[in-house]
Write a structure and sequence with these properties.
Shape: globular
Strand content: 25-35%
Structural class: alpha+beta
Helix content: 25-40%
């Protein structure tokens, strides 16, 4: 059974999903926050992705139930939730979206994955950060500099949590490659319409042991400045709002 809700303006705390699937094996929900639902082209894109994700897991769960019914004894079922939230809007049309997936499929513990999306309201398409830099070649100067700044940020956070061992242990998980450096979004700024830098999200396991939980690394725009394209120079400025940095502590 599938239930789909229309786009609507809702309270940010409204838990009602925008799409849901349920069978004897699994319950799955997909939820967009109110700010995203107010942006209909983006909301449609995200919900379409969420539906594909949900339908894949529905098929997987139903197959697992058929092949291994003992895993679903005593009323046990899979549970999956995908949530999309708006992170920032930069230059009036670059929208940063956080996507978190909670999955409980009968393993040792539930898992949460974190990913991000950058959407251009003008072209109504997803984009990468490539246009904002003069070059983003794998192992090139831009991504090497960004990786160094990420290590500095993660080192500080790990020391605060008392989980730091060495920079080498952090580097073990990351590479100076666009697809290996982390899920990225534009960070808000004290300067209206600008971004104060890039934020990189890492779920549990991504840069440490599962028990450490997720991490967020912030790279301020002054680190990025030598590598920015004209388009990048136009979108960055100001500093990170105090409430943003404090909310992650």
């Amino acid at each position: 059974m599938a239930v789909s809700a229309p786009f609507h303006t809702a309270n940010a705390d409204d838990p009602k999903p925008d799409f849901a699937l349920k069978s004897k094996a699994v319950e799955i929900t997909v939820t967009l926050d109110a700010d995203l639902k107010a942006n209909q082209p983006l909301a449609e894109n995200l919900l379409a992705e969420g539906k594909r994700w949900a339908q894949k897991y529905l098929a997987d769960a139903n197959k697992e139930l058929k092949e291994s019914p003992e895993r679903f004894s005593e009323g046990r079922t899979w549970s999956l939730d995908r949530n999309y939230e708006m992170r920032s809007v930069v230059a009036g049309h670059y929208v940063s979206v956080g996507r978190s997936d909670y999955t409980e499929t009968g393993g040792a513990h539930p898992n949460t994955d974190i990913n991000t999306i950058i959407w251009d309201n003008t072209t109504r398409k997803r984009i990468s950060i490539r246009p904002f830099f003069r070059e983003t070649a794998d192992d090139g100067p831009t991504l090497k500099a960004i990786l160094e700044a990420i290590v500095v940020s993660l080192r500080a956070e790990k020391k605060e949590r008392d989980t730091y061992t060495s920079d080498a242990d952090i580097r073990h998980y990351l590479e100076p490659k666009l697809l290996k450096i982390g899920a990225v979004t534009f960070e808000p700024s004290t300067e209206a319409g600008k971004s104060s830098g890039l934020s990189f999200d890492y779920p549990a396991y991504a840069v440490g042991a599962y028990v450490e939980g997720p991490y967020d690394a912030f790279v301020p725009w002054d680190v990025l400045k030598p590598y920015l394209s004209a388009e990048g120079i136009a979108v960055f400025g100001g500093t990170r709002p105090a409430e943003t940095s404090q909310s992650e502590k």
